[in-house]
Amino acid sequence: MTDDRRKKRSAKPPEPSGAASENDRPTVNPPFDVEAFARFASGPSSPQHGLPAAEAPTRRPPPPASPPPPPEPAETRERQITLTDEAELEAARVASLRSDPPGPGRASPLSIADARAPSSPSMPVVNADRSVTPTSIEAAVLGAIGSSRAPEITERTIDDPMAEMRERFSLGDYTGALEMSELILAEEPSDLEAAECGENCRSVLEQMYAARLGPLERVPMVVVPRTQMRWLSMDHRAGFILSLIDGSSSVDLILDVCGMPKLDALRILHELVQQKIVAFR
Amino acid sequence: MEKVIGIDLGTTNSCVAIVENGVPTVIPNRGGYKTTPSMVAVTEAGKRLVGHIAKRQAITNAENTVYAAKRLIGRKWNSPQVKNAVATSSYRIVQGPHADVRIVLREKEYGVPEISAMVLQEMKVIAEDYLGEGVTKAVITVPAYFNDNQRQATKDAGEIAGLDVIRIINEPTSAALSYGFGKNVEKTIAVYDFGGGTFDISILEIGSSAVFKVIATAGDTFLGGEDVDARIIDWLVQGFKEEHGIDLRQDRMALQRLKDAAEKAKCELSSVRETEVNLPFIISSGRNEALHLQRTIDRKTLEELSADLIERTVDICKQTLADAHLEKDDIEEVVLVGGMTRMPKIQQAVADFFEREPCKGVHPDESVALGAGIQGSALTDDKQEMVLLDVTPHALGIMTQGGYFEELIPQNTTVPTHRTKIFTTSRENQTAVKIVVMQGESERAEENELLGEFILTGLRRAPKGTVEIEVTFEINADGIVSVHAKDLETAKEQSIEVTASSGLTREEIKDMLEGAKDYMVERRSTEEFEAAKQEAERIVGEIERLFPQVEQIVAASDFGRDAIEKARAIVAKARSAIAKRDVGAVKAEIEGLSRTHRMFKGVVAKTH
């Protein structure tokens, strides 16, 4: 991938309702430096401070050294990258957790629209009515962030996706790092570092979703009556996973037979459980 | 006396049976089903799936799921059936090192008998779990038209699976055994076998003293219930396309669900007049909304969709009767075998053709396995008298000048047998002749199966057509074919014994057998661990449920606190053993856990 092509990538800031999708990104403990992150999020040196939380997103000026990007036709969604730093992500996450009741853009309690893993074709993950049980580190981070004002959400051009990937990985944003790695691999399939990072992210995310689901030998059951099923809001991938839940197949078995990447399947199953469409025996 | 299992190794489903206390019984698998899909798959993680679990992911993991391996077993790479399979199968079929067929799953090559062995191994495990003891001997059924190589390949599959295959018997014979079990019948019967992947029609004579003889057999190896499923899928896909403009075939997940639903609807329509196919969220539209498929299909529609398929089976029946020089009146009973024969339209078609109501006294899915079980029991029980007369499933002969096939032993000849014919030289001063031994029904030699070849040398130099060579084919009671060629003038002789080959060498079979053994050791070990783990976790759960009550009761005393600490330590040790996947340690901890649980229950019970 050439630098020029990398520089072309830019993204629009996420809409407030879109924060819910970021909220879905699992936060992982190692190698996450909680204290540093908390200081960064609440400290006076934070560049985002002083701005009202509800202020409309602003465009961050391009670096002085960079030439102004040439005018381009409207970019496709696939080429757009929503780029925020971890503090922004967490702020959005906290905001979404606080927001009550759900806004018009959020899914209904029975909704599992577009549940998919980051490796899937781009569709925003809507996580409605999610009950989050933060880990102790997550709680510490959320506490630190919660006491501070929400930072502004900005857009910036990705100058160096590789650096972005490394940064996100180091911050424990494995979903974001995986997105970056897939972006890099889409243009440079032989990039070993991106491939390795992607694999690592996938592995960590799989472990996280598996941990959230509990022992994989448990047998899930559909708890929504069959007659109400069609009124749920979900995509066909979730519908497929749902069709495999027969009350006798374990999560392990479903993962074996679903034929989709393990991470995607785990995420969808997790969503189904969160939405109370599926429960365990 | 060691038990002998009977296995119906089917194209789409397999079944295992045994005779217990004189009663033939089909053994259900762990899921409670009496048949197990003959499917093998390897997942992305390298895990082997066999049976129902493999079937459930057959379309979403199509490249790595083998179905209908039976169509390939024992066949040569250049056979038309293999070419057909290469063109139509979703999994990769490649040429093996001995002109045989190999299947590639996740970049690893497997011999076809090796794949069939995985299914047989599963059937063996089902029987062992049911009987609670090891099983090593089996009778396996094959279609009556299987040639020697296919039969040998099936035997090899059994060997790889750790089974001593004491007899291979023909499927229609097996069904007839099941039909005639406990009866004293002397009849000519037709076995109409319409299964998931193949159709076969066989005419048998059941004689006195329980003698079973196949008179004629024919069929279509690419005609079965799956073709009917495909018609239902087409109907559903077409309807959906007309409604929404979306082709569901483009999405594998949708297709997997359609396949399952089509099969289910087909089965239901055998007992009800209409059924609903309801597949919510079958596909997402371009507008980010999921669409549902909901259609009602009735029996009449299904009959219209499958009419030509049913007609094809009737045509084959007609041809088989003609080949056997039999009239419909000669058939005294028609036995229906195979799941498709549950379809009322098929029963009607059979009744119309044979002009008699078919017998419904045998179970369509189980009769073949039951017959194999009966045969297995008879082979190990001297008191049971049963004679199965084998016939040659295909004609045997040699290749003659111009690439023609000269038949010596016709198809369906009862063995043992021998036939002789005189041939002459075709060239001036010809001093040697090549005897090419073949099996098949085609007049063109190239279309038949090559069994072996040898050269008879030292012939007298003479004008063409003057030297006479006597060729004798002999098939002994064990089915071994030997061919002799003799120069009648000099009495010089050459011969060959045709030994069937599955396409695998002894070394390969040995290696595969070792691999299968290793797999079983690992599988049993995993199962043992899982069972111990579940038991340990169950008791841990019970203990944890009682902890608060026990703590409240005994917290006041030092002894009580000490007991609580010990209990916590036992639970921790058990968890640690589970985490390390140490089956021995988990089993050892179960005893301590049980003791603790009993103690906790006692404490709680005393206070109530």
DSSP helical segment count of chain B: 13
Mean pLDDT of chain B: 91
CATH topology of the largest domain in chain B: Nucleotidyltransferase, domain 5
Low-confidence stretches of chain B: none
Q: CATH superfamily membership of the largest domain in chain B, which one?
A: ATPase, nucleotide binding domain
Helix content of chain A: 40-55%
Computed CA radius of gyration of chain A, to the nearest angstrom: 19 Å
Question: For the largest interface in this structure, which chains are involved and how many residues does each contribute?
Answer: A-B, 27 and 31 residues
Give the structural class of chain B.
alpha+beta
- Report the count of strand segments of chain A: 6
Which assembly state applies to the chains in this document? heterodimer
3D architecture notes:
The complex is a heterodimer of chains A (281) and B (608). Chain A is elongated and about 50 Å long. In chain A, helix 7 (174-187) runs antiparallel to helix 8. Chain A has 12 helices and 6 strands. Helices cover 44% and strands 5% of the residues of chain A. In chain A, the strands form 3 sheets. In chain A, strands 1-3 form a two-stranded parallel ribbon. In chain A, strands 2-5 form a two-stranded parallel sheet. Chain A has one domain (3-210). Chain A binds chain B through residues 113-114, 123, 215, 217, 229-230, 232-240, 242-244, 248, 253, 256-260, 262, and chain B through 31, 43-45, 47, 49, 53, 56-57, 59-61, 251-254, 256-257, 279-284, 288, 290-292, 530, 534, 537.
List its traits:
heterodimer, A: 281 residues, mainly alpha, two-stranded parallel ribbon, two-stranded parallel sheet, 5% strand, elongated, disordered N terminus, B: 608 residues, alpha+beta, Nucleotidyltransferase, domain 5, Actin, Chain A, domain 4, Substrate Binding Domain Of DNAk, Chain A, domain 1, 6-stranded mixed β-sheet, 5-stranded mixed β-sheet, 27% strand, globular
